[in-house]
Amino acid sequence: xxxxxxxxxxxxxxxxxxxxxxxxxxxxxxxxxxxxxxxxxxxxxxxxxxxxxxxxxxxxxxxxxxxxxxxxxxxxxxxxxxxxxxxxxxxxxxxxxxxxxxxxxxxxxxxxxxxxxxxxxxxxxxxxxxxxxxxxxxxxxxxxxxxxxxxxxxxxxxxxxxxxxxxxxxxxxxxxxxxxxxxxxxxxxxxxxxxxxxxxxxxxxxxxxxxxxxxxxxxxxxxxxxxxxxxxxxxxxxxxxxxxxxxxxxxxxxxxxxxxxxxxxxxxxxxxxxxxxxxxxxxxxxxxxxxxxxxxxxxxxxxxxxxxxxxxxxxxxxxxxxxxxxxxxxxxxxxxxxxxxxxxxxxxxxxxxxxxxxxxxxxxxxxxxxxxxxxxxxxxxxxxxxxxxxxxxxxxxxxxxxxxxxxxxxxxxxxxxxxxxxxxxxxxxxxxxxxxxxxxxxxxxxxxxxxxxxxxxxxxxxxxxxxxxxxxxxxxxxxxxxxxxxxxxxxxxxxxxxxxxxxxxxxxxxxxxxxxxxxxxxxxxxxxxxxxxxxxxxxxxxxxxxxxxxxxxxxxxxxxxxxxxxxx
Length: 568
Prior knowledge:
By secondary structure, this protein is of the alpha+beta class. It contains 16 helices and 17 strands. Among the domains are: 303-412, no CATH class; 417-561, Orthogonal Bundle (Topoisomerase I, Chain A, domain 4).
């Protein structure tokens, strides 16, 4: 018999103070009631944060307080800077009433698990099975420091985080067949999709305190319906959508509470008392509920709007066409390179053409954009995007992705100069990368070799994007406090001058690495009876310099008017 671990009252959430003191573990009760006193949640890997927010923090607030009916009420909550006394009393009452349901090791209703879950042979796996960064089965991270055979034990706080993470991001494919699952065959269940967050890129907004962060991630709207319940209220086997039994369903969520606390797996943690205290040493992960598609009510994902009748239009399990599908993050690609999607407000989304896709940003980011006047254009909003890239039929984790941007609120106004400036800067960076790739291709042709294929190897344009990354982020942070066009133009000129220098440095490296033979060059046929084209180093360099001057037109104009232009 082991002691319980109450998520309500035992410390497990690492939170620093809002004034910068080091993070300490806090209970759910303290984290929520005193949210105004804390800074950002500290987690082991970035994808744990949306799991904790969506599986616990946000649904408890929504279940206890409802949500602001409209943007005016949302602003009233926000302007107070902390929960009002009536709100605190409601939160405390809810946590007290449901405290038994938040016990991680309760023998009858363990939080987020199925009591007594077992296999025919009574097997269990090492606790490393729920750790995304550990080597288990087919999932072998490139730089894993331990093997599947190593004994792993988790503190209750660690186990709670990885339990929530598994419900959100678990890999797909075969899962252990549990006793009581009528669809299990030969001790396994096949066809399991990834956890629901694994099928999208998650957008979380962060404010100055945990209180502000929580509110920024709650969309306004009607209170939950009577059928929209969090998983801890659906433990009865007689419930039409039970979360506490081995049986699972394919269905759509009833609402935000159901969606946020979705149980994509049936899990059981095996705790034991060790010399170090209570630890989780084993785990069983079986099939859980399946969602046909991500509902458009999900507030934390950006969307691709498909052309009507287009070949790529997504369809759900029964073949119904889905006009939208969640955008997924791309490994190695900075989020600012996708600003056209991030800054596409829901109320004025870029519509899909006959053959081209459009975009719509997340509901919470769109909501923040509608509150620019109330929050102020200089509000220090941070946008955090996270995702997981899977490989080998989504049965392994290839990469955990995370990026954070200091986004100016004014950029969410479709008519603002800040928005236009940021979109132009992102486009200029991409064009510079293309210009450098063309330079590389021309130099290789001058030597009689083929250009680097776009989908193989690392092309030099990636070096440009890496070199410009911090410059773009610095500009975004600076534009938070800029309102007038003159200062925006000055910021863009400064950006272009730095981009001019960085792109020149990378181009020079390519030019200096080329053998003497490139000056003589080579001629190649263009086909269709066209004359041969000559590729030589001087022509390649001249073409790049001309293209750079066109892309960075402000810097070029400034150089032309200067008596001492930069050498590059």
